Amino acid sequence: MNLIQRPRRLRRSDTLRALVRETHLTPNDFVYPLFVCEGEGVRREINSMPGCFNLSIDELVKEVDLAVRVGVRSVILFGVPDEKDATGSQAYAEDGITQRAIRALKREVKEAFVIADNCLCEYTDHGHCGVIRDGEVLNDPTLDLLARTAVSQAEAGADIIAPSNMMDGFVAAIRAALDNAGFEHLPIMSYAVKYASGFYGPFREAAGSTPQFGDRRGYQMDPANAREALREAALDVEQGADMLMVKPALAYLDIIRAVRERFDLPLAAYQVSGEYSMIKAAARLGWVDEERIVIETLTAIKRAGADIILTYFARDVAARMA
Fold it and tell me: Which residue(s) pair with 131 in the sheet?
């Protein structure tokens, strides 16, 4: 007698579904991206990212404390300085906004684990990620500035350096600079696979980092390319990366899976600003159930192979889990 296969037997209740669930999210999976700006008492909502804010250092401390209380201990900082110049000097200044924010967090929120994004675009007056000459983003001169930035972030107390600039050789340059400065113990989380994506728009409003000419397709990856992603990741592994990242996440789940299968380093994926804002906008219009969509998308990212998820939903999701 032929028996009907009945997978539905294992879906009959919440408890049973939870018992056989293959992919689990916990607050330990999340890194909470935050924007820190000058001033005091500043909590300025980002127009295109409802629920996200530019925070002065005192408000940043409060926000991170709340995140830690619900189990999100890891944050990544993006600096929004008042003053910008052609070489992004505030990125590597000892008293730069990010450096002061790192010191404050390590002093005031003892459990906080602070990741420092390492790039120049938030700090340059032209909005590009490197040194400009004759309208061209120069690779090798930029490496020196990124290395200086990494050392200054390490001296401020950062727990991980996360270079996101996509210059060739950036991991090697930063690794050498950290080692030479006595920070050989400090890990590098490399934005190894960063695509030239249309999903970054809201971030650029938040950080004031929109390029003033051209775009970043000359150094960020072509969204059509998959094999190139594995080459980029392999180069960063060779240069000393301790962790890899794919950015963005949802449009690149296949890339997350491919990197996961090829490399055994911890793998992060960034649910970027455009992904966040699309969910928020659709939820505000009543078109989707925000809570369900958020969990579904985060689960998809982890199911694809990410060990770590950078998401602006981190604190809210963790609070619901608690």
Answer: 138
Domain boundaries along the sequence of the chain? 26-321
Q: 167 — phi, psi (to 5°)?
A: -80, 145
Place of tokens 């938030």: 122
Confirm if 193 and 233 have CB atoms less than 8 A apart. Answer: yes
Residue 3 burial (C-beta neighbours within 10 Å; 0-12, 13-18, 19+): exposed
Say if pTM beats, i.e. exceeds, 0.85: yes
How many whole angstroms separate alpha carbon 27 and alpha carbon 256?
A: 20
Catalytic residues: 194, 247
The 3-state secondary structure of the chain, one letter per residue:
CCCCCCHHHHHCCHHHHHHCCCCCCCHHHEEEEEEEECCCCCEEEECCEEEEEEEEHHHHHHHHHHHHHCCCCEEEEEEECCCCECCCHHHCCCCCHHHHHHHHHHHHCCCCEEEEEECCCCCECCCCCCEEECCEEEHHHHHHHHHHHHHHHHHHCCCEEEECCCCCCHHHHHHHHHHHCCCCCCCEEEEEEEECCHHHHHHHHHHCCCCCCCCCCCCCECCCCCHHHHHHHHHHHHHCCCEEEEECCHHHHHHHHHHHHHCCCCEEEEECHHHHHHHHHHHHCCCCCHHHHHHHHHHHHHHHCCCEEEECCHHHHHHHHC
Q: Which residues pair with 308 in a beta bridge?
A: 268
Residue carrying the six token digits 């209380």: 69
Which of the following CATH numbers is that of domain 26-321: 3.90.1140.10, 3.20.20.70, 3.40.50.2000, 3.30.390.10?
3.20.20.70
Task: Give residue for tokens 């003892």.
Answer: 110
Q: Which of 24-38, 132-146, 259-273 has the lowest mean pLDDT?
A: 132-146
Reported as a single tens digit per residue, the pLDDT across 266-318 is 999 999 999 999 999 999 999 999 999 999 999 999 999 999 999 999 999 99
The sign of the dihedral angle between the CA atoms of 289, 295, 298, 301 is negative
